[in-house]
């Protein structure tokens, strides 16, 4: 290493002193927060895991808008949905950029996917495509057959091997997304596209982990050539960039080939390519936005659906109530479909509660501020990162009394009972960066709930004659999952088993 940590610290200290001398007095104070130390700011206060818990604590101490400073950059933490809407939604022109991440974004290339694409023309083009194809419940209807078919296959896999629940949930999420994004049908349990996409998304997490790469602290290191001593990150970045490129190109080329052969099933990609002469720029945008579907969609739905099984294991009365509704409306001769949804208000509330109780993306994805702002009297400087603490918003007892209780009835009104806020107005984020896959996510969670509860009884596993009660705990990270747990999944009756085993059909042209 030619550059040592001492050099870096001295360099940063020098920059800090120059900046402190030259900088103008700010027009107002930053939002309150833990004491900021000269040069270090709040680096020592930053939690190393499950940041949402510490951020919620700061909310209790400093109020719904708090701030810390890390390496000279303010982080603005929002602990109430109202403030998140006032800031990120109502002033979205200033608050819709994403942070620049030298390793994951620039060197590996994730800045070309929608999650990290800077706010600008390319961002708007991606969003237009998403909006056209999966932007409303109505446009999602075209993909309901794919959702129903893959969820039926999921039931069959769970029936055959209930102990592999987590793997089946993961496979199904990948299968649904690849059908929708590229009209691709999985080949067996170890599909090359799914394996590649899972590898790429894992590398996304590694490459965007704060503090994992020095180049994220000193961005000019990205110009250091790979042969330079200590520049091993360049080799890693190249390798990961190749995985990402393959993940983007392979399914795209598959769809183009299917279209050329006249056998493509309708998908996000085929729809955007159909009968058009495209510029290189347009082709790039279609290819990368289709890949964004996978990278944004697979792991998130996995977390939500896995948590449904956890909740049903722990809250048997809720399960029974949902099953009673399904039995009354649909009977037990067929599986539920999307067309039944309007008649299943309790199951619909259960979907909401799944999205609240287990918070899939607890801190959303940071929004970067593009212009100085004064909000509620606080100074929000350009370049700050705004972090909505979605976990706290969905577990705030002011909005959701007894937040750790799984209770779908909280959304059902009645005499003198006002329904609690629909968590879907919070869990998908805010403003122009709100999750563009929210209708797809909502559809996937609904159909999994309805079909699984129609045919399975989910309960605590029994080991050596003793019931095992799973512990509710979530993994750290941008996308948070319930930690693996055991449960028992059995068909509700011989008739239910027969229904599961029926031919799920197929989708073709
Ligand atoms: C339960 C499921 C899901 C949850 C809870 C969820 C939640 C979120 C959240 C909180 C954000 C950040 C919003 C913000 O910055 O304010 C986000 C962004 C995003 N989500 Fe989802 N999501 C889910 C499923 C999906 C699905 C199925 C897709 C794909 C179709 C998807 C694609 C994306 C993309 C591409 C972004 C980045 C948007 C942008 O930066 O403009 N998500 N999601």
From TrEMBL:
InterPro entries reported for this sequence: Cyt_P450, Cyt_P450_CS, Cyt_P450_E_grp-I, Cyt_P450_sf, Cytochrome_P450_fung
SUPFAM superfamilies, per the entry: Cytochrome P450 (SSF48264)
Keywords noted in UniProt: Heme, Iron, Metal-binding, Monooxygenase, Oxidoreductase
One Pfam family hit: p450
CDD domains: CYP64-like (cd11065)
Residues annotated as binding heme: 435
Domain of life: Eukaryota
A Gene Ontology molecular function term of the record: heme binding
Coiled coil region boundaries: none
Cofactor(s) required for function per UniProt: heme
Listed pathway(s): Secondary metabolite biosynthesis
Family membership: Belongs to the cytochrome P450 family.
Protein name: Cytochrome P450
Organism field: Piloderma croceum (strain F 1598)
Source lineage: Eukaryota, Fungi, Dikarya, Basidiomycota, Agaricomycotina
């Amino acid at each position: 290493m030619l550059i040592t940590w001492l050099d870096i610290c001295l360099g940063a200290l020098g920059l800090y002193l120059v900046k402190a001398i030259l900088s103008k007095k700010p027009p107002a104070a930053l939002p309150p927060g833990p004491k900021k130390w000269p040069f270090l700011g709040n680096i020592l206060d930053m939690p190393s895991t499950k940041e949402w818990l510490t951020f919620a604590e700061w909310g209790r101490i400093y109020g719904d808008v708090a701030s810390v400073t890390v390496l000279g950059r303010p982080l603005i933490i929002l602990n109430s949905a109202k403030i998140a809407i006032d800031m990120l939604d109502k002033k979205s022109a200033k608050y819709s950029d994403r942070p620049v991440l030298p390793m994951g974004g620039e060197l590996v290339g994730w800045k070309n996917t929608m999650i990290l694409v800077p706010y600008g023309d390319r961002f708007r083009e991606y969003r237009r495509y998403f909006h056209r194809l999966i932007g409303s419940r109505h446009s999602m209807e075209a993909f309901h057959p794919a959702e129903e078919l893959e969820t039926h296959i999921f039931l069959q896999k769970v029936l055959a091997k209930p102990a592999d629940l987590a793997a089946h949930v993961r496979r199904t999420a990948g299968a649904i997304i690849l059908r929708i994004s590229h009209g691709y049908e999985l080949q067996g349990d170890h599909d090359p596209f799914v394996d590649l996409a899972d590898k790429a998304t894992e590398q996304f997490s590694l490459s965007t982990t704060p503090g994992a790469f020095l180049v994220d602290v000193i961005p000019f290191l990205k110009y250091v050539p790979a042969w330079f001593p200590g520049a091993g990150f360049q080799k890693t970045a190249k390798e990961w960039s190749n995985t990402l490129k393959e993940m983007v190109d392979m399914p795209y080329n598959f769809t183009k080939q299917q279209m050329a052969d006249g056998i493509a099933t309708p998908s996000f990609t085929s729809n955007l390519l159909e009968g058009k002469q495209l510029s290189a720029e347009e082709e790039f945008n279609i290819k990368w936005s289709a890949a964004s579907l996978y990278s944004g969609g697979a792991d998130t739905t996995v977390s939500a659906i896995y948590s449904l099984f956890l909740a049903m294991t722990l809250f048997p009365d809720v399960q029974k109530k949902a099953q009673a509704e399904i039995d009354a409306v649909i009977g037990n001769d067929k599986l539920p479909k999307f067309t039944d949804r309007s008649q299943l208000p309790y199951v619909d509330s259960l979907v909401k509660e799944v999205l609240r109780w287990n918070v899939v993306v607890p801190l959303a994805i940071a929004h970067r501020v593009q212009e100085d702002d004064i909000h509620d009297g606080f100074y929000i400087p350009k370049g700050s990162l705004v972090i909505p603490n979605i976990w706290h918003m969905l577990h705030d007892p002011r909005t959701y009394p007894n937040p750790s209780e799984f209770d779908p009835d909280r959304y059902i009104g009645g005499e003198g009972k006002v329904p609690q806020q629909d968590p879907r107005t919070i869990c998908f984020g805010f403003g122009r960066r709100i999750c563009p896959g929210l209708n797809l996510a909502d559809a996937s969670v609904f159909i999994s709930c309805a079909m699984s509860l129609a045919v399975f009884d989910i309960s605590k596993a029994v080991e050596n004659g003793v019931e095992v009660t799973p512990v509710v705990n979530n993994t750290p990270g941008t996308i948070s999952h319930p930690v693996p747990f055991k449960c028992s999944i059995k068909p509700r009756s011989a008739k239910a088993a027969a229904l599961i085993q029926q031919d799920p059909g197929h989708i073709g042209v």
